[in-house]
Amino acid sequence: MRILAGSLKGQKILIPKGIRVTRPLVRKVMFDILPDLTGCLFLDICAGSGSVGLEAISRGAQRVWFVEKNPRVARVLRSNIQRLEIGERVRVVIGDAVKVLKTLKSDFDIVHLDPPYRSRLLSTLLPEIARLNLLRTDGIVVVESSRRTTFSSAPFQVEKRRIIGETVLSFLSRS
């Protein structure tokens, strides 16, 4: 897998075994919809290989926070960061997403949520992001989910939804 656009275009991303990755077409659709990322603060929750956050860095995000629960997967993510020489622009936090959110102090322009498709994390993470005021007033939450997954977007409202094969991208804003 490779980064699609920006300053790191074409750079290879290592993928840990046993995880579902955000396919290139899904990333393309996501970043085509998102506004210009120049200078933004980006939070990638359930980051996996980091393909989405790495794409954000390549497209101009000032800083990206990656949250990943699995230490083995986080090692591969750190390897990607080291290989791309972007360590000064990122932070990797290993731990349970809900607990990690409580430790973050920034307010983010974009929050990307990509929990395992069969988990129920969305019902916990969305209200927690709002409660902790982690999203800027004009910020965007992007939820990547399965077509078979239903979730309440509360306390956010759905602005756009795109279906790409089995994947649904939901773009949420503050209500």
UniProtKB/TrEMBL annotation:
Pfam families: Cons_hypoth95. One of its GO terms (molecular function) is 16S rRNA (guanine(966)-N(2))-methyltransferase activity. It comes from the Bacteria. The keyword Transcription does not apply. Its EC number is 2.1.1.171. InterPro entries: RNA_MeTrfase_RsmD, SAM-dependent_MTases_sf. Coiled coil: none annotated. Keywords: Methyltransferase, Transferase. It is an enzyme of class 2 (transferase). CDD domains: AdoMet_MTases. NCBIfam families: 16S rRNA (guanine(966)-N(2))-methyltransferase RsmD (TIGR00095). This is 16S rRNA (Guanine(966)-N(2))-methyltransferase RsmD. The gene is rsmD.
